Amino acid sequence: MDSSSEMITISAEQLKDKIEFSANFTIVNVLEKEYYDDCHIRGSINAPLSQLLQISQNWDKTRFIVVYCASAQCPASKKAYDALKKMEFKHVAAYEGGMKEWKEKEFNTEGQCAMDYLK
Question: Rounded to 5 degrees, what are φ and ψ at 60?
Fold first, then answer.
């Protein structure tokens, strides 16, 4: 079975609950820095897809990691998920709704959230 059919996803509501009730995981925005600086999920870190392999080298491979990007149409979270799984991270999930859905649900964000893709 190929990795694309095995991708584990997390919904906006599940991620929001996890943020509120569990500190033992990392949320990773895989968009380029300008997008992260404009709008990101409060508490997430920025590891652009283009730099993910270098940035994640020293991460704990047993830690639960949630990756996200701009929206359900954005392929970056799936690519990040696949890359982390290839690097043998044990617990990875993708939040596929991305910043667009997160902002639409009016969940906690940081930044101006002014970019066009969010409208």
Answer: -70, 120
